[in-house]
Amino acid sequence: MAVESGAEGGTRLVEVVEAGIPAGLAGGGSGAAEPTPAGIAVKPTQPAASKTASDTIGMRRRMVWEGIGPSRLAGRRAVYRDAMHHDDELDDLGRELRERMGEEMRLEAEMLERDSALVERRRRRLADLAIELVSRGDTVSAIAGDKTLRGRLIYARGEIASIVTGSGTADLHLAAGVVLRIDERRSEGGTAPRSGSDTLRARLLEYEMAEQRIEIWVPAHRVEVAGVIAAVGKDHLVVTDQNGTEWVTQLADIAWVKPH
User: Fold this and answer.
1) Fold for the domain defined by 127-259
2) What are the tens digits of pLDDT across the range 138-176?
3) Which of 72, 126, 249, 259 lies in the 20 to 30 Å Cα band around 18?
């Protein structure tokens, strides 16, 4: 600090800005006014009135030493605000990209799941579907020609499936073009798969050995015959009705067989 004489006879403190001033010029212990050497800049100051004022003056001094004026400080603050706004925009963009990517991944997973289910269904045979219906216990309608059997499948294996209706049980010949309509899906009450005959001929041989009376439906010719089995051939069936008349039909044309 140095003492400077005012125009009105008073004195005031001044701050020496330039470094490297000799100790005598910067203010000694005498308190007398010292001449200001040429080339040395001075800055008038006011005595610190309080701690807050002192802090403000110190900040201004630092601005002078660092070459930062109030206008440049305001500019830096504006740049900082612009940078913060830019960061917010980047955060919003990043959030939007993450949400969009998550949605795309979800849709892709759903498509893969649907494709996997579709591939699995394409691999199945009619017998596999019948086994699934047995396991679930769905109510189905078996349609052949102008006749329909409605009930629940209790057995399925190979080319045959057994259905329980209100009037009894029937063995469906799936290979004969029987149409299955799923009327009601169920989540419980199904039957576990079991071993047994997997062809219509094998089932007819069982009925023949047991001397079981049967009833067959041939939709291609709209023929329904009831009687006992006279013979089960390689590719045909011979049935004798109650009048003693024999009926012969190909196994491939029989839609279902009802045991009595």
Assistant:
1) SH3 type barrels. (2.30.30)
2) 999 999 999 999 999 999 999 999 999 999 999 999 999
3) 72
The neighbour count for residue 2, using CB atoms within 10 Å, is: 18
**CA–CA separation, 141 and 179 (whole Å):** 8
Write 156-159 long-range contacts (CB < 8 A, 24+).
Answer: 156/127, 156/130, 156/131, 156/193, 157/127, 157/131, 157/193, 157/195, 157/196, 157/197, 157/198, 158/127, 158/197, 158/198, 158/199, 159/127, 159/198, 159/199, 159/200
**Rg, C-alpha atoms of the chain:** 52
Specify the amino acid at residue 7.
A
Q: For the segment 44-58, what is each residue's pLDDT rounded down to a tens digit?
A: 555 544 455 555 555
How would you classify residue 82: left for phi > 0, otherwise alpha for psi between -120 and 50, otherwise beta?
Answer: alpha
Listed in sequence order, the residues at least 6 apart from 140 whose beta carbon sits closer than 8 Å to its beta carbon are 133, 150, 151, 152, 153, 163, 180, 181, 182, 183
Give the Cβ contact number of residue 100 at 10 Å: 10
**What letter would DSSP give residue 245?**
-
Helix ranges, the chain (H): 51-66, 70-123, 126-136, 200-209
Helices (H), 124-169: 126-136
> Terminal CA-to-CA distance of the chain, rounded, Å?
127
